[in-house]
Automatic annotation (TrEMBL):
Domain of life: Eukaryota
Matching SUPFAM superfamilies: FAD/NAD(P)-binding domain, Rubredoxin-like, TT1751-like
Source species of the chain: Cyprideis torosa
Family annotation (Gene3D superfamilies): 2.20.28.10, FAD/NAD(P)-binding domain, TT1751-like domain
InterPro entries listed in its UniProt record: FAD-bd_OxRdtase, FAD/NAD-bd_sf, FAD/NAD-binding_dom, Rubredoxin-like_dom, Rubredoxin_dom, Rubredoxin_Fe_BS, TT1751-like_sf
Gene Ontology terms for molecular function: iron ion binding; oxidoreductase activity
Protein name from the UniProt record: Uncharacterized protein
A Pfam family the protein falls into: Rubredoxin
Length: 384
């Protein structure tokens, strides 16, 4: 059980505190000499120090409901993890990690860990705020030009809107507040930390809860153009022009930020097309739709870093997991043998079943489930 306190530096009136407390379903029970008190678990709690007893987000909701207007004038900084791209926002804090909103970076304990990759405070660096820019109506996102933007010889065009694409756009904006930028992406362009996909289920988070920012909001923040759900099919470096399924786009400079793609495996069977390649939020939504609603059996192909993370996440969420791995141990190419063996044992203790020295040969429909046939002849009845 975690306890958080949120203390206002500005005097809070009884009426404002009463409205804030009622906004989150509590009852103002007394007020003595202008000091409001709320009752939590039978105890009187001063209004300027609201204790969170039930959930980490409780203090956030109370604070947001009754914070004085002057608090909005306080500036907060952001820091980015060099390993996974997680952004620590002082204004939001990390409630799940014990850091209430408003926690300054300097006040973060040294033993705090990045919620996505587990690295420490020292692995985060300041994320500079975008430089002030002079508004230019002809390039303003408010003109809704993004949907049809054709670029130009003065444009920097970025293909891809994953963490690499958005990071490049942010870095360019730090150097030049005016150069026209256009991101072209086949996906929705949502801003989210991809490492969170392999740990969201055990954290009880749905796909939409992983989104840090909507694509157009981010584009507006950086004052750039954005074309989502636009697949690039050809690049002509001589003419400095890319061809998309929605028309041509000219560029002065071109950045390829396409990210990684899984290999196409030679899998046979009448259900081979049902193998999910979870590499973005859209396919993760599909996966969650198949898994939500009760325990399932999941067959994972590969015991690398992502496969091992998914195995731990799914097993911790009550699903049965079988990992098919052609090697001898999980992460055997990255870890010393003793540590890889320890990882195997830890996952096995969580109920993860390993099938080493095997690959998936066929996937067939079998009644209302799927049947996986491995290269060693083993057959597995599975749901996903």
């Amino acid at each position: 059980m975690k306890t958080f306190s949120v203390t206002s530096s500005v005097d809070t009136t009884v009426d404002k505190l009463k409205a804030g407390i009622e906004a989150v379903g509590l009852r103002l029970v007394t007020h003595i000499n202008g000091q409001a008190n709320a009752k939590l678990l039978g105890k009187d709690v001063p209004g300027d120090q609201i204790l969170e007893i039930f959930r980490p987000d409780f203090a956030i909701r109370v604070w947001q409901a009754c914070k004085p207007a002057a608090v909005s004038d306080i500036t907060f900084d952001k820091y980015i993890c060099d390993a996974c791209g997680y952004i620590y926002d002082e204004a939001k804090g990390d409630p799940d990690g014990g850091l209430p909103p408003g926690t300054r970076f300097a006040d973060i304990p040294e033993d705090w860990q990045c919620p996505l990759c587990g690295l420490g405070k020292s692995d985060l660096r300041p994320l500079p705020a975008p430089k002030p820019r002079t508004p230019r109506a002809e390039r303003s996102i408010a003109t809704k030009k993004s949907a049809t933007c054709r670029g130009g010889n003065d444009y920097v065009v970025i293909i891809g809107a994953g963490i690499a694409g958005w990071s490049v756009a942010e870095a360019i904006r730090q150097l030049d507040a005016e150069i026209p930028l256009l991101i072209v992406t086949a996906c929705e362009g949502l801003v989210y930390p991809k490492p969170a996909l392999s740990m969201a289920m055990a954290q009880g988070k749905q796909a939409e809860q992983l989104i840090d920012q909507q694509a157009m909001d981010k584009a507006d923040e950086l004052n750039i153009e954005l074309r989502t759900e636009t697949r690039v099919i050809k690049i002509d470096t001589g003419k400095q022009r890319i061809t998309t399924a929605k028309g041509g786009i000219n560029y002065g400079k071109l950045v390829l930020a396409l990210g990684a793609h899984q290999r196409d495996l030679p899998i046979g069977g009448d259900a081979a097309g049902q193998v999910l390649k979870v590499n973005d939020l859209a396919t993760y939504r599909t996966l969650r739709n198949r898994l939500d609603g009760g325990p399932k059996h999941i067959t994972l192909l590969g015991a690398g870093l992502i496969g091992s993370e998914f195995a731990e996440d799914f097993s911790s969420s009550g699903h049965q997991v079988t990992v098919v791995e052609p090697g001898d141990l999980p992460l055997e190419r990255l870890l010393p043998m003793a540590i890889a063996q320890s990882l195997r044992n830890e996952l096995a203790a969580k109920g993860v079943n390993f099938r080493f020295h095997a690959t998936l040969d066929q996937l067939n429909q079998h009644e209302d489930r799927l049947q996986a046939i491995l290269s060693n002849g083993d057959r597995l009845d599975t749901d996903v």
